[in-house]
Amino acid sequence: MNFRKLAFNLVDSMRGGLINTELKRLERSEIDKDFYNAEKSASMRTFLASLRDVPSYKDLDMSKGLEQFSVIQKKTIQSDRSNFLSTAYQRGDLIKVSTSGSYGLPAEYYLTKQKKAQQLAEVIHYGRKVGYDVGVKHMYIRSVVHKSAFKQYLQNEHYLGCKDLDDRFLQRAREVLKGRQVKVIIGFPTAISMIADYCLRKGDTKSSCSIKGVITSSENLSEQQREIMKKAWGDIGICSRYSTEEFGVLACQYEAGGDFLINSLNYHIEILKIDSDLPCREGEIGRIVVTDLHSFANPLVRYDTGDLGLIERRETDEFGSLLAFKSLSGRGVQVIVTPSGELKYPLYLDTIMERFEDTILQYQLIQETKSDFRLLVIPKVPSIDGILNDLNITMLRWLGEGAILNIEVVKSLEMLPSGKRPYVINKTL
Predict the structure, then answer these.
(1) 51-65, 143-157, 214-228: lowest mean pLDDT where?
(2) Helix or strand holding residue 128 (H, E)
(3) Rg (CA), the chain
């Protein structure tokens, strides 16, 4: 055991062992169904009882379960924050977290120390499946580097800011990887896949570094991006992690085309219709609605995340929570509205662009107005002139009558304030 892990365990023990207790709980729940059911049932009862201390919920009959609660939006909680805070806690004893505001205004939420420990345990537990653990050397790619050098040393992290995905950034990342100490890369899939492609173009072999795993978050991970990473670094573990600042790790996808396996021990997840609060049918894209069973200080009950997901088969536990969903399809502003009013989802754009995976490395579709669209493409080859007409015809067929498309060959994609580079942006929403 390395000294960082020893130090981590010592500090956690001095603080009550909250993180390691949660780790053991998560591990056991995956192999012991009876334990899972007992823990989930106890968590549900405890959480519902705690809502009596929340002004917005105190008059409801908690014996009726979650179904009686209305779906709640972020803006509702933020505009009336005091009514959604538990009176059982002093605000000074809580941990404040802020969301990035990538797709709207930033938001603030409050966590108990136990909830924060749970979030850290989730990161470790689901990261272990692809080689990440406390003390493992890893490269963390974010839009802005916000940790001190000392803290990076303690956590064995090498931070890279990815505001500009230019050759300078790519060469710096390559040099770090060639040092053969980094075992895991964590960050945006756009940035990581471009690093992988850069290493391939420079002639690096799989033995040039010691990468064992990749964890992506914040953006959708495409199958093409997975393939580029595996081509560059071999048969590594790759996890597409679905997580948020206010919740924690909600779900993970480990195989291309596989399910997002839900952390159903800690979260009750539903996928509801786009235009109503009814459950989606199998094969239907809908809104991801989450209840955090451990959000005691700032309860999130049937909270509309703004994210969209797809169910291909409906499998739930005995409490009615989904155990898996097929894929993420972005957020509301990542939905294209065609001139005829039809909704088009990023999920299906992936399928279209697979035709051009040999020539196009990255792409981004931007809706500027009801009928005007821009398709930004980063080429994989010296020239893509030969495929531009075919690409234009294919995209216009998908966008429908009345669409006007301008294809631009670029070196970088448009970035949101958070550093995310989603491959669909709707500026009309």
Answers:
(1) 143-157
(2) helix 113-128
(3) 22
Is the CATH code 3.40.50.1820 the one for domain 131-235? no
Summarised one tens digit per residue, pLDDT across range 309-344 is 998 888 999 988 999 999 887 766 578 889 998 888
C-beta of residue 366 within 8 angstroms of C-beta of residue 407: no
Q: How far apart are CA 208 and CA 195, in angstroms?
A: 14
Res 79 pLDDT > 80: yes
DSSP letter for each residue of 22-74: HHHHHHHHTT-HHHHHHHHHHHHHHHHHHGGGSTTTTTS-GGG-GGGSPPB-H
Number of H helices, E strands in the chain: 11, 20
**Mean pLDDT, all residues of the chain:** 91
- Taking residues 78-82, report their average pLDDT: 88
Arch. (CATH architecture) of 335-426: 2-Layer Sandwich (3.30)
Q: Where are the domains of the chain?
A: 131-235, 335-426
Q: Which residue type is seen at 12? A: D
Partners of 256 in beta bridges: none
Q: Is residue 293 a contact partner of residue 387, using CB atoms and an 8 Å limit? A: no
